[in-house]
Write a structure and sequence with these properties.
This protein is an alpha/beta fold. It is built from 19 helices and 19 strands. The longest helix has 31 residues. It is elongated and about 95 Å long.
Length: 519
């Protein structure tokens, strides 16, 4: 059995969950579900990042403690993820006692090794980024990510000797082409390392005289840890570092999923931090683009967030989940609109998949007594459907290994198209009206039911609730329990004659286009 360790970034608790957080978590959840269904021992970590200046700033504005803000917003993330049905194994908080202990252990280790020094620093500081900026971070006098003017600050702080490892990291990235993927982000990381004006040593502390909300440095009680140095270590805490029984296997298979705005800390800071404590880097850093609304990146400060709970209430979360996975090419930006969501759901889920489920089970009820019929003699048309299943499953496996989620879904819906065409060719609703066609109708319906079983299994990582519903209607409730489930998707002929089926309501009723504000 292989091991698979999947992480999202831990989400900063200065805002409630929005489409950006949701997409990353949907993506990681889909990958985790896929690996579980292939039989891999999978551990999926998500959680919240709770220290730092932004939290202290919000708490001061509201007249409450930073801990109260952290508790409130961390609970909002956890409860939202639970309502949406994500399959995480641990929800970690950077205020968790074991995480605080791990951060202080690592800080002391790096300090004792002579990799931390103290100096005065003068530079431009962005509260949104919680770090000093370089020239490449600023455009028209504003932080590129937060559209906020940085502040000039002079401080004495502790620094991590990060720059000593740049040459090693560049070599590691070049020697391992899929370490950071897609390739555009590998190239971007290499460009950062080669830009002499862009990076230096990493400031890893903040003086308590201006910020007390953080993990205290074990070697100087007058300082707290820089929020990114703290946050990145969550991936080790969550995996059981240093001596948890499954830590070694998990870490050897670690895959991080992040948005492109946090490429630098994950692609540069983190591998070097790991090297400083004698650990191998993670296996993959998977970087996705932005969801844009009105051609602008989603953010609290810009006021264009999309609430996942609002989408769930309006359209159902499976529909929203499908849109996110199907309409973003991994690594590129994508645009969100309700019009695009409705069009995608109506086309793929209502007209295509939903129609296949509906007519297969309706005809099984009408012509086969609501049971899977026995399969009679087959010919080339049935053989084509059976042959299309392992082809689709192979494409899904290939694309999932490359994080090409939209293409994996394309492969499944190509199979849906094959089965719909098969039904049109066989036309059992016509054949049933003719004499001597009972075996032909039975074979057609068996083939369609069996294809639906395979489609439902392949869909399980992407649309878990929909998959379970289809399988339940096929009389296969509980079919997703256990390991190696996806192997069954390629094993044609597993459906048993006589299994009771249920028609059920429309799987995905057609959605009405959203009302126009100017209407």
């Amino acid at each position: 059995m292989s091991s698979c360790y999947i992480t999202t970034p831990i989400y900063y608790v200065n805002a409630e969950p929005h489409i950006g957080h949701t997409y990353t978590t949907v993506l990681a959840d889909t990958i985790a579900r896929y690996h579980r269904l292939t039989g891999d021992e999978t551990f999926f970590l998500t959680g919240t990042d709770e220290h730092g200046e932004k939290i202290a700033e919000v708490a001061a504005q509201r007249g409450v403690s930073p801990q109260e803000i952290s508790d409130q917003n961390s609970d909002a993330f956890r409860s939202t993820w639970d309502r949406l049905g994500f399959s995480y194994d641990r929800f970690i908080r950077t205020t968790d006692p074991d995480h605080v202990e791990t951060v202080q252990r690592i800080l002391q280790q790096v300090h004792d090794a002579g990799d931390i020094y103290f100096k005065e620093y003068d530079g431009l500081y962005c509260v949104g980024c919680e770090r000093f900026l370089t020239e490449r971070d600023i455009e028209d006098g504003l932080c590129k990510d937060h559209e906020r003017a940085p502040e000039q600050r002079v401080e004495s702080n502790y620094f991590f000797k990060m720059s000593e490892h740049f040459e090693w990291l560049a070599g590691h990235i070049e020697a391992n082409p899929d370490f950071i993927r897609p390739e555009r982000y590998k190239n971007e990381a290499l460009a950062m390392l080669r830009d002499e004006s862009g990076l230096g040593d990493l400031c890893i502390s903040r003086p308590k005289e201006r910020l007390e909300w953080g993990i205290e440095l074990p070697f100087d009680a007058n300082y707290v840890c820089y929020v990114w140095f703290d946050a990145l270590i969550n991936y080790l805490t969550g995996a059981g570092y240093p001596d948890g029984p499954k830590f070694s296997e998990r870490w050897a298979s670690a895959q991080h999923f992040v948005a492109k705005d946090i490429l630098k800390p994950h692609a540069i800071f983190w591998p070097i931090m790991l090297r400083a404590i004698g650990l191998e880097p993670y296996r993959h850093l998977n970087v996705h683009g932005y969801w844009n609304v009105d051609a602008r990146k989603v953010s609290k400060s810009l006021g264009n967030m999309i609430s996942p709970l609002a989408m769930q209430e309006q359209y159902g979360f499976e529909a929203f989940r499908f849109f996110l996975l199907r309409d973003m090419v991994f690594g590129l930006d994508s645009n969100f609109s309700e019009e695009a969501l409705v069009a995608r759901v109506n086309s793929d889920l209502a007209n295509n998949l939903g129609n296949l489920v509906s007519r297969t089970l309706n005809m099984t009820a009408r012509y086969a007594g609501a049971c899977v019929p026995a399969c009679g003699p087959t010919d080339v048309l049935e053989d084509e459907v059976a042959a299309a299943v392992p082809v689709a499953a192979g494409k899904v496996a290939q694309h999932m290994q490359r994080c090409e989620i939209h293409r994996a879904l394309e492969a499944i819906f190509e199979l849906v198209d094959v089965v719909n065409r098969y039904l049109e060719q066989r036309a059992p609703w016509k054949a049933a009206k003719q004499e001597g066609t009972e075996q032909l109708v039975a074979t057609t319906l068996y083939t369609s039911c069996e294809a639906l079983r395979c489609i439902a299994l392949l869909l399980a990582p992407f649309l878990p609730a929909t998959s379970a519903t289809i399988l339940e209607r096929l009389g296969l409730a509980g079919a997703l329990d256990g390991a190696h489930i996806l192997d069954d998707a390629c094993a044609w002929g597993r459906s048993k004659a006589g299994t009771p089926t249920t028609k059920g309501a429309a799987l995905f009723p057609r959605l009405d286009p959203p009302a126009r504000e100017d209407a």
